[in-house]
């Protein structure tokens, strides 16, 4: 596995290549997807493909378009890694951990 700081650094660089609107949409969509499916997340049953499909639906893109967009993939990967860290790889029983340590998150 890649160290979390490396993924955060990559995501930081990627933000420059993706519109801020898409960054927020991608990060929020990943959070909401994992939170809504937290029981599956805890069992290791969520896949990156499932998340990319969900993000694609939010952005009006196909799974293939998301998969081939390196910047979007890095954003998804970085947010999943952040959630994995703060939720202790799904061992945290309360799914609210998904939203922990986010200074700019505003749940609608």
Note down, in words, how this protein is organized.
The protein is an all-alpha fold. It has helices spanning 4-15, 20-36, 38-42, 48-59, 63-68, 70-86. Helix 1 packs across helix 6 (70-86), helix 2 crosses helix 4 (48-59) and helix 2 packs across helix 6. The chain is globular and about 35 Å long. The termini are far apart.
Q: End-to-end span in angstroms?
A: 33 Å
Radius of gyration: 13 Å
Overall 3D shape: globular
Number of helices: 6
Largest sheet: none
Calculate the mean pLDDT score and round it.
Answer: 82
Q: Spans of 5+ residues with little confidence (pLDDT < 50)?
A: none
Strand count: 0
Secondary-structure element string:
HHHHHH
Instruction: Give the class from helix and strand content and strand pairing.
Output: mainly alpha
Please supply descriptive tags for the structure shown above.
single chain; about 110 residues; mainly alpha
Short characterization:
The protein has 6 helices and no strands.
Topology diagram in text:
Layout: H1 4-15, H2 20-36, H3 38-42, H4 48-59, H5 63-68, H6 70-86
Helix pairs in contact: 1-6, 2-4, 2-6
């Amino acid at each position: 596995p890649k160290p979390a700081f490396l993924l955060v650094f990559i995501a930081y660089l990627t933000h420059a290549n993706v519109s801020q609107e898409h960054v927020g949409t991608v990060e929020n969509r990943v959070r909401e997807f994992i939170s809504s499916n937290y029981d599956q997340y805890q069992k290791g049953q969520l896949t990156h493909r499932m998340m990319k499909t969900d993000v694609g639906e939010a952005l009006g893109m196909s799974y293939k378009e998301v998969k081939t967009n390196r910047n979007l993939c890095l954003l998804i990967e970085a947010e999943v890694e952040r959630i994995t860290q703060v939720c202790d790889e799904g061992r945290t029983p309360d799914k609210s951990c998904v939203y922990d340590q986010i200074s700019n998150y505003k749940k609608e």
